[in-house]
């Protein structure tokens, strides 16, 4: 009998990211994003394991917890864990000029991945190690319960998926990087 792991990205945060941002505004956006509420989920994906889940693992961030409650209701036990928080990001750059938010985010993320923007935050190597530990935890949960469900974040979920594939898990459905994207792995 197969075991299943569901990796679900949170719903779309309700936050405006249009226009041009100074460095300070981009830094404030990151803070606000972590606390933002999410859009209501109007339709449930047919790939959700509705009725089969007693426990859902989530990040400690509000957008993941709110998404889990919307998808699975109040009868499911939510287990929050710092291990499942998103990879950290720190806005990098000189405090001059205004740019689209994506410029600040992509530049900062790329420099972080290269090890050049990790002052006072988790390094990329540490984050990948944490994702591998999260994958191991999910695999153990799936072996014990036959199913493990995680509602977390896009970047983290991608690295968890990579680690699970290295452990022999097969991607049955790739939910992509979109909001409420559901990736299903089996072994």
Automatic annotation (TrEMBL):
It comes from the Bacteria. InterPro entries: His_Pase_superF_clade-1, His_PPase_superfam. This is Histidine phosphatase family protein.
């Amino acid at each position: 009998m197969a075991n299943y792991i569901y990796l679900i990205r949170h719903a779309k945060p309700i936050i405006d990211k249009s226009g041009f941002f100074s460095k300070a505004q981009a830094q404030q956006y990151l803070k606000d994003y972590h606390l933002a509420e999410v859009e209501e989920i109007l339709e449930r994906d047919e790939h959700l394991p509705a009725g089969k889940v007693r426990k859902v693992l989530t990040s400690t961030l509000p957008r993941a917890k709110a998404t889990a409650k919307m998808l699975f209701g109040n009868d499911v036990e939510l287990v929050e864990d710092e291990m499942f928080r998103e990879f950290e990001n720190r806005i990098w750059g000189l405090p001059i000029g205004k740019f689209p938010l994506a410029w600040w985010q992509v530049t900062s993320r790329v420099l972080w991945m290269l090890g050049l923007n990790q002052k006072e935050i988790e390094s990329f190597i540490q984050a990948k190690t944490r994702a591998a530990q999260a994958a191991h935890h999910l695999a153990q949960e799936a072996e014990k319960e036959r199913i493990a469900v995680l509602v977390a974040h896009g970047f983290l979920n991608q690295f968890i998926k990579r680690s699970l594939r290295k452990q022999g898990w097969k991607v049955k459905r790739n939910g992509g990087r979109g909001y409420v994207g559901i990736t299903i792995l089996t072994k």
